[in-house]
Amino acid sequence: MDQDPSLAGHLAGHLGGLLRADVQAVARIGGQHGVSHYRVVLADGRMVFAKVAAEAGFGGEAGFAAEASGLRWLGEVGAVPVPEVLGWDDRALAIAWIPQERADGRSAESFGRDLAALHAAGSGSFGAPWPGALAGLPLDNARAGAWPEWYASRRLLPYARRARDAGTLDAADVALVETVAARAGALAGPAEPPSRIHGDCWSGNVLWSGGRGALIDPAAHGGHRETDLAMLALFGAPFLGRILGAYQEASPLAAGWQGRVPLHQLHPLLVHACLFGAAYRDAVLDAARSALAC
């Protein structure tokens, strides 16, 4: 492993204090949204994955605490593998390293069954008892009793207005999203109890290891189970058909779920519009129109 000499001092010391262990080597392996990713080797040979923000206070009130809380909440069920949280503070998060392999049909089916079991574990309400964060942006996790109203007020409207304030969406665009929000109760299909969901379950947050799919980087909360499945479809999970087939065998979805995919994809597309600007405007509007048409 190549080690960046500039990390040997301050960063290694910070991570060593976080982990309460001696750090042997640190190497940057990527990053996004103002956060760098590192592979850390401890003196005892263990490997750790660490996220380090450019400055303290990443993600505002929630920051890495939201991710740590979400990982632990998902992991307590024992349904889907999640990495152990080893330490976190207002600038960094350290979790156990997950060795990766290529997905195949069998691991995809196993993941579909595991995800169904995770969702079935449920939640006491829609939302979560901790402040949320997604890609450094705040998520309102305040709990509520009905999913359509919760989704409209906590996910759709705040991000539509944030994108408008940034100049990415205009007033007519926001009005279209507001129409979806106002009709969410009619569009959402049969009522379901709160599921224990990952909340940002795109393919990049599924690591294939040991013949299963492990979940990382959650925006976990009590939500609608169709949200995780719609996220898997948004950017194309490998063997998606086999994931969904195994999920359906374990926990059949309500009729018409395919037509509700755009409704569930609208929030993550709004997030992308807030993060990346006008490149996602058309996708937001297409999803809103498709949600209204279902």
Describe the structure.
Strand 9 and strand 10 form a beta hairpin. The relative contact order is 0.13. The strands form 4 sheets. A 5-stranded antiparallel β-sheet has the order 1-2-3-5-4. The protein has a two-stranded antiparallel ribbon with strand order 6-7. It folds into 2 domains: 92 residues, Phosphorylase Kinase, domain 1 (2-Layer Sandwich); 189 residues, Alpha-Beta Complex (Aminoglycoside 3'-phosphotransferase, Chain: A, domain 2), CATH 3.90.1200.10. Helices cover 42% and strands 18% of the residues. The model has no long low-confidence stretch (mean pLDDT 94). With 294 residues, the protein is α+β, with helices and mostly antiparallel strands. The radius of gyration is 19 Å and the shape is globular. The chain is built from 10 helices and 11 strands.
Using brief descriptors, characterize the structure shown.
Aminoglycoside 3'-phosphotransferase, Chain: A, domain 2; globular; 294 residues; 5-stranded antiparallel beta sheet; Phosphorylase Kinase, domain 1; 2 domains; alpha+beta
Instruction: Give a short account of the largest sheet.
Output: 5 strands, antiparallel
Structural class comes to alpha+beta
Q: What is the CATH third-level topology name of the largest domain? A: Aminoglycoside 3'-phosphotransferase, Chain: A, domain 2
The H-level CATH homologous superfamily of the largest domain, spelled out, is: Aminoglycoside phosphotransferase (APH), C-terminal lobe
- Work out the number of β strands: 11
> Largest sheet, order of strands side by side?
1-2-3-5-4
Q: From N to C, what is the helix and strand string?
A: HEEEHEEHEEHHHEEEEHHHH
Mean pLDDT: 94
Tertiary shape: globular
The level-1 CATH class of the largest domain: Alpha Beta
Tell me the number of helical segments per DSSP (H or I, 4 or more residues long): 10
Which CATH-level-2 architecture of the largest domain? Alpha-Beta Complex
Rg over CA atoms, rounded to whole Å, is 19 Å
Poorly predicted parts: none
Helical proportion? Answer: 40-55%
Strand content: 15-25%
What count of structural domains?
2
